[in-house]
Amino acid sequence: MALVFYSHSDEGGLFEKRFRAAIAEQLPDLEVRTWPEIGDASEVIYAALWLPPEGLFKALPNLTHIFALSAGVDRLLQARDLPSEVPIYRLEEGGMAAPMSQYVHYGVLHAQRQMGLYKEAQQRQQWKRDAAEPAAGDWEVGILGAGVLASAVAETLTVAGYPVRTWSRSRKQQAGVTSFAGWDELPAFCENLNTLVCLLPLTSDTDSIMNAELFNRLPKGTSLINVARGEHCVDEDLLTALDSGQISSALLDVFRQEPLPSDHPFWLHERIMMTPHIAAPTAGGIAAKQIAKGVADAAAGLQPAGFVDRKTGY
Ligand code: NAP
Ligand code: GLV
């Protein structure tokens, strides 16, 4: 019995080291093999993966469980050789709630305290105060998504004094947060927003959701934070909305192509702030332990947490 591990971006092998330690603690008899060194493929029944290369699944005919080293499973579900009957489990929270909340809080603060304007004024060596700077209590934040990470972000922002609303498929109840559900309520969700945050999974329903139509529903000057997936945003529509002032600024952590090509207009845009997909990394020990626990549950005949419904795509 063996598990195959593969991570596309495990610089220095830190996560693999933590994962191997967590498996050794919880399932000492399970052999962990790093792709492509799979040994006897017939012995491999578990896979723990981030952005697996093409051909991996075809080489592993006896998989019983697939564990994603991530919250989002969009790339995994797109793998052409993904076996149709093998259950997939994703990371739920996995130590990501705190860094994601910090990241979004930072972005909201940046917009609400008008740091972009002050930066521009500094570049002009201009001492310029804005007496009308809005208070947190008047700064409406809307989060697309109301799942594990969005609800943690909503809690952080609520505690910081921001009015928060979420948008999801099903209605939620969270203290201090207004819940909107379904496409019919998306226009009402957009009303009076100051910052829009995307924390949706990438599915066929949510692909390109942040497009000209959505931007035009928002009040002029709304700021944007995308921490979900690059494909949620139509890049050309965002650039147009930034140029017209419909969107005032954007904090982007995710992109259609990563790394972002060097000639992409986002790089040098003065009202775009970019980070290289670091909002909530899964390199930590909590994620490693959680995935190892899932494997241990599977080995014990239990249902691991984080089951992915392939019909909804998340
Ligand atoms: P989650 O718990 O599965 O939550 C997903 C939320 O999206 C749920 O509230 C769900 O609604 C809602 N949703 C899905 N499809 C929808 C639709 N068609 N219309 C309206 N709402 C819809 O996911 P999570 O763990 O919070 O993670 C969210 C995403 O964050 C991941 O998929 C990943 O892409 C991204 N992420 C990024 C980073 C980073 O570093 N940038 C790190 C981690 C995760 P229901 O509640 O009604 O089902
Ligand atoms: C990171 O983007 C994740 O989905 O965990």
Written description of the protein model:
There is one protein chain. The protein has 314 residues and is an alpha/beta fold. It has two domains: 2-94 and 283-299, Rossmann fold, CATH 3.40.50; 97-274, NAD(P)-binding Rossmann-like Domain (Rossmann fold), CATH 3.40.50.720. 29% of the residues lie in helices and 18% in strands. It contains nine helices and twelve strands. It has helices spanning 14-26, 74-78, 97-112, 115-123, 148-159, 186-190, 212-217, 235-244, 285-299, and strands spanning 2-7, 31-34, 44-50, 65-68, 88-89, 141-144, 164-168, 177-181, 195-198, 222-226, 247-252, 272-274. Strands 8-7-6-9-10-11-12 form a seven-stranded parallel β-sheet. A five-stranded parallel β-sheet has the order 2-1-3-4-5, with helices on one face. α1 (14-26) packs parallel to α9 and α3 (97-112) packs across α5 (148-159). The mean pLDDT is 96. Bound molecules: NADP nicotinamide-adenine-dinucleotide phosphate and glyoxylic acid.
Question: How is the secondary structure organized here?
Answer:
Blueprint: E1 2-7, H1 14-26, E2 31-34, E3 44-50, E4 65-68, H2 74-78, E5 88-89, H3 97-112, H4 115-123, E6 141-144, H5 148-159, E7 164-168, E8 177-181, H6 186-190, E9 195-198, H7 212-217, E10 222-226, H8 235-244, E11 247-252, E12 272-274, H9 285-299
Parallel strand pairs: 1-2, 1-3, 3-4, 4-5, 6-7, 6-9, 7-8, 9-10, 10-11, 11-12
The structure holds NADP nicotinamide-adenine-dinucleotide phosphate and glyoxylic acid (GLV).
Features:
314 residues, alpha/beta, Rossmann fold, seven-stranded parallel β-sheet, five-stranded parallel β-sheet, elongated, binds NADP nicotinamide-adenine-dinucleotide phosphate, binds glyoxylic acid
